[in-house]
UniProtKB/TrEMBL annotation:
GO biological process: DNA replication, Okazaki fragment processing
Gene3D superfamilies: 5' to 3' exonuclease, C-terminal subdomain (1.10.150.20), 5'-nuclease (3.40.50.1010)
Alphabetically ordered keywords of this record: DNA-binding, Hydrolase, Nuclease
Name of the protein this chain belongs to: 5'-3' exonuclease domain-containing protein
Domain 5'-3' exonuclease: 2-262
GO MF entries: 5'-3' exonuclease activity; 5'-flap endonuclease activity; DNA binding
């Protein structure tokens, strides 16, 4: 079985940084390496775990660009305005993690003005018929809109795989309507304001009554719950839909071969760990020493 595993590295970086004390992982010059260590550990554990059932895994790592929010900010200038800048102990680790991915021979992509989410969506869209199964590794709920019969999400926070059936059982509607659901209730994490007066329950009922059809949603003659709020906030909803829908047409490429742990037994990976002064045995076992 051919598997494409897509890593939401930008999300995993923050997860690693905040789950591992930066004061416990430092080089002799005082610079923290906890995110580097954490991401490397997560990748190796993930691939080892999945390779038991899927020996042929093509691995792709997606990263936010420094200007990743610009396109969406042009549409809504409040988009992600609630985000704090990266902590000082993390900032220098971003480039190191990119270097680490290269040292591990893991295909990694970053496009100017695009978020990692958009790259993931583009990979999912372009290669859904190339692979038997696509697994997105991310705890980000925005990934729900990408679920399909052969696309699932591995949530590293919950340590579980979520399928399209799992989503529909939990939410009560199709994953293809998740963007509309978000557009109605808003997204506090990304600072996207929803329709005041519409929460989870009403949003689900509206989606069920309209089947997520925007023509019905904005049809003046079609009756459904909270319609007055929808019609009054039509422009906001349309704007939210544009902001929240992931881009699927970025020109992305696959690596030339599937991932193999033998790739790590190189001087590159060994030298990288040396430069980080990381001696962890579970990482060092894949070096040439």
């Amino acid at each position: 079985m051919m598997i494409l595993m897509i890593l939401d590295i930008s999300n995993l970086i923050y997860r690693a940084f905040y789950s591992i004390n930066p004061d416990n992982f430092k080089r002799s010059d005082g610079l923290s390496t906890n995110a580097v260590y954490g991401v490397a550990t997560m990748i190796i554990k993930l691939v080892k775990s999945f390779k038991k059932d899927y020996p042929n895994i093509t691995l792709v790592a997606c990263l936010d660009s420094p200007t990743c929010s610009q396109n969406r900010k042009k549409q809504q200038n409040t988009y992600k305005n609630n985000r704090l800048s990266a902590p000082s102990q993390l900032k220098h680790q971003f480039i190191w993690i990119r270097d680490m991915l290269n040292a591990m021979d893991i295909h990694n992509v970053e496009y100017e003005n695009y978020e990692a989410d958009d790259l993931i969506a583009s990979y999912t869209s372009k290669f859904s018929n190339t692979f038997d199964k696509i697994i997105i590794v991310s705890p980000d709920k925005d990934m729900y809109q990408l679920l399909d019969s052969n696309v699932s999400i591995y949530n590293p926070r919950k340590k579980m795989i979520e399928s399209i059936d799992d989503f529909e059982y939990t939410f009560g509607f199709s994953s293809q309507n998740f963007v509309l659901y978000q557009a109605l209730i808003g997204d506090k994490i990304d600072n996207v304001i929803g329709v005041k007066g519409i929460g989870h329950k009403h949003a689900v009922n509206i989606i069920k009554q309209t089947n997520g059809d925007l023509n019905l949603l904005f049809d003046e003659d079609f009756a459904y719950i909270k319609k007055n709020l929808i019609m009054h906030n039509k422009e906001l909803i349309i704007s939210n839909l544009s902001i929240l829908t992931l881009c699927k047409n970025i020109h992305v490429k696959l690596p030339s071969s599937s991932f193999n742990f033998k790739q790590l037994k190189t001087q590159k990976f060994e030298s990288f760990l040396d430069s980080m002064e990381i001696q962890a045995k579970h990482l060092r076992q894949y070096t040439t020493k």
